[in-house]
Amino acid sequence: MLSVERKLKIAEMVGKNGGIRTSELSDIFSVSEMTVLRDLATLEKQGVLTRVYGGAVSSQSYSVETPNIVREKIRTTEKNKIASLASKLIDEGDNIFLDGSTTTHALAKRLYNFKKIKVVTIGLDILNELKDIEGVEVISPGGVLDKVTMNFLGRSTEEFLENLNSDKAFISTTAISIKAGLTEPNPQQTFIKKIMLENAQQKILLADNSKYDVIALNRICDLSDLDVIITDNKPDDKYFHFFKQNNIKVLY
Amino acid sequence: MLSVERKLKIAEMVGKNGGIRTSELSDIFSVSEMTVLRDLATLEKQGVLTRVYGGAVSSQSYSVETPNIVREKIRTTEKNKIASLASKLIDEGDNIFLDGSTTTHALAKRLYNFKKIKVVTIGLDILNELKDIEGVEVISPGGVLDKVTMNFLGRSTEEFLENLNSDKAFISTTAISIKAGLTEPNPQQTFIKKIMLENAQQKILLADNSKYDVIALNRICDLSDLDVIITDNKPDDKYFHFFKQNNIKVLY
DNA sequence: TTGACAATCAACAAAATATAACATAAACTA
DNA sequence: TAGTTTATGTTATATTTTGTTGATTGTCAA
């Protein structure tokens, strides 16, 4: 990627998210932090953004809020770590499924450096994240908007997805258990995740450690059906061994 | 390959990609980097692209044009007047179609006082407008997001709409003429509007006075197919009489 | 307030890219 | 055919960008 392109994208990201960490940018664009710092300095001189300790915020939001609150905003979370690892699995030219969750939303934020990928997602927030990213073709299955999760759900959503195939499906879940597999409280969400997984070459689960040893009502699939699991920390031994046995790649 | 041919292709690639590296071009065309640099210098002189360290970017991507945001800001008073009139046609319990335009967006902003209506729309901006309105059930046909208009378009969008019926369709257009009827420059938009009109009990056109006596390539329908036309001012006599004759209600 | 930690900065080194000057080869012209 | 033009490649040098290191500074929690 050209350095001007990178700067442009940084400016876009800051404008959209309000603020971002230096470390995150370094990770997303695979350049050293020093380079990011230099980029930010240039952009600040141009008045595009305001630098703060740890990263940068958009010039507008800074004038209203105190620096402390802003810092809070840009703090990295487990989700960002998972999103970072997940983004490294995506190749140029890929066709990917994203279900609608805060974790996949974090992943969507890391798609700025791609030139040509297709993303199919049921999350309205994710659609909004992707709508201005040039290199991403955005496809929505549509459906009825669930105002609680801001996901499109329903029979027509499922039908749409049944007719699509993708290289990779990035799915999150609320409950993981060796016995019960992946489970979900909401049946409609379950259907969607199920279809996405079935129609993807590579089935990738995004789940932080709070999800282990929990069981919900509706079954999505067995753990052994997955190809990759991305977590924030090394999972419990029993899970780790199970994953190894079933030839599931674990990233953390 | 001829050198002019190569330059043409480089210009194309830059326009399509937004930007490209010198090294990449050298690789693609199997010429030395020096030759690429000379090509880029020529193309820059012609104003086709802008050279940057490491390659070149399209001259356009450097300019800060955002068509949708600009369009949003012109003729706002007319649009608001039309939206206000249109909102009075909606009844509690209705099921309505909204196409994706700045005028229908203005209408969407006026749906806060409804308790129970269903809205089907292809406009992402409209979806965002409606997502927090409690009394509105939001349905999206989905499809491929057109980043210029921020509308969902494509075959699947059409199929979705073909299977739906609504009480009222609110459609805008770029061109109105007695002879040519409603016309549109974009064929995909045309299909969508056509289907929305066909599947609605009441066909309502939203169009400010700038649209009259204009003809575009793709025909949506005849003027006589419409039930209601909402404008910002009383239309020209010839239109006014035509509407009366064809029993079309005119609001302004 | 201070110590621990992370982020920044400054200075330098390394890598990538651009430029200029010259050499070569092909295409064109008289 | 010889001479001229044009496009391209090569090399050496200059410039820009990026990475690395260690010193410095900012932040937070004890």
List the topology elements.
Two copies of one chain form a homodimer.
Chain A: H1 3-17, E1 19-21, H2 22-29, H3 33-45, E2 49-52, E3 55-58, H4 59-64, H5 67-73, H6 78-87, E4 95-98, H7 102-108, E5 117-121, H8 124-130, E6 136-140, E7 143-146, E8 151-153, H9 155-162, E9 166-172, E10 175-177, E11 181-184, H10 187-198, E12 200-206, E13 218-221, E14 228-230, H11 237-245, E15 249-251
Parallel strand pairs in A: 4-5, 4-9, 5-6, 9-12, 12-14, 14-15
Antiparallel strand pairs in A: 1-3, 2-3, 7-8, 10-11, 11-13
Chain A binds a DNA duplex (30 and 30 nucleotides) through helix 3.
Report on this structure.
Two copies of one chain form a homodimer. Chain A is of the alpha/beta class and 252 residues long. Helix content of chain A is 40%, strand content 25%. In chain A, the strands form four sheets. Chain A has a seven-stranded parallel sheet with strand order 6-5-4-9-12-14-15, with helices on both faces. In chain A, strands 1-3-2 form a three-stranded antiparallel sheet, with helices on both faces. A three-stranded antiparallel sheet of chain A has the order 10-11-13, covered by helices on one side. In chain A, strand 10 (175-177) and strand 11 form a beta hairpin. In chain A, helix 2 (22-29) packs across helix 3 and helix 6 packs across helix 7. The longest helix of chain A has 15 residues, at 3-17. Chain A is globular, with a radius of gyration of 19 Å. Chain A binds chain B through residues 2-5, 8, 115, 124, 127-128, 131-132, 134, 137-145, 147, 150, 152, 156-157, 160, and chain B through 17-21, 52-55, 57, 61, 124, 127-128, 130-132, 134, 137-145, 147, 150, 152, 156-157, 160. Strand 7 of chain A pairs antiparallel with strand 6 of chain B. The structure holds a DNA duplex (30 and 30 nucleotides).
